[in-house]
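Predict structure. Chain length: 412.
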Amino acid sequence: MGVPSRQGIGRVPAVLCMLLLSLTLLAACSGSSSSRDDASTSATSATTDAVAADGTATSGVIDIAAVDPTATRSQSGQVATVEPTVETNATVEQVLSVADIVEKVNPAVVTVINQQRFSGFYNDGSDLQPAGSGTGFIISEDGYIVTNNHVVEGSQALQVIFENGDTVEATLVGTDPFTDLAVVKISGPVPATVPLGDSNALRPGDAVIAIGSALGEYTNTVTMGIVSGLGRSLQSRTGGSLESLIQHDAPINPGNSGGPLINMHGEVVGVNTAVVRTSSSGITAEGLGFAIPSDTVQHIATLLIEDGEVVRPFLGIVYQAITPRLASAENLPIDYGVLITEVPSGPARQAGVRQGDIITAIENERIDQDHPLVNILFKYKPGDTIDIEVYRPSTAETLTLEVTLGTRPSNT
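Prediction complete.
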């Protein structure tokens, strides 16, 4: 037999190489497909847990990056299932869907009509006319409804329209212009009530739902957003300051005032009261809604229902809240407390407080962004004697002054 040619010898290995290459590619494709499916399943599982944890503090979140598929193969060569580590001591809370929450809360959300008498060429002023409208929500079976003060301000009569369109007369129980809150009451059976939740439990990023009568005609409009910030302040209609507000980006419009801001458990955590559309310099803004926290609502509503008014203690100062940014800009020695800009006649002046002083604490409770002066002061009653801590920059000394609180005039 002759010696095989080089061409014949080379052909056989080439065929074998092609066959082996095909098998290798097939195995690689199969493995890639399996890896993608596993990764997809893991990602879906982790995403579901993360979403649940975000809204409800579920039992655990899978760290996808910690799972190495190449390090978990069994002896048979198959990829072993990796069970996530779950914290057994975490609290699992039930969370409703947005539609479930809306279905539950909507019957308790009402439109509030402010009626007044107007005189004109064709009107002698004897008939009541709608002067404006807003939103409210029913908090008790005996018909108490929370809304904004500016919704009912100046009213001579009030009407409440339920979600189903039924209209009833309402009476004004009391108002508090300083927090922009009011309580009205209806008689007879109520379609539903909604509970007040804990606004102190809110965190930036929490999902929230707003329901209100947008533009006064699109009743029970539902929008959704997240908590954007906490402890915000805004200038109030009375010239004072609304403190500890919840900032959120759920769209709200004229007519939404007084409507509830709801958490994912179907509880009211705030009362929508304002939206900022432009800055002081004229820059257009979007998604800047503000709500009064439910803890404030609970306190004020209780006082209005029990007494018909809110009697506030009076310190008698004009001040500016100090923030770290303000302290840096004004070169202040302290980055918390309140800077006194004016001391009219009153309790603070009698106690020795001066313009330029910084009040840092009341009864050893520090004043800062999380604990505004008005909130701390509201814990006391007119006639109470309290100690205030004052830093005096002019002499670089810290003083403790004793102040007997007065009663805040209704026009301040």
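Summary: The chain has seven helices and 20 strands.
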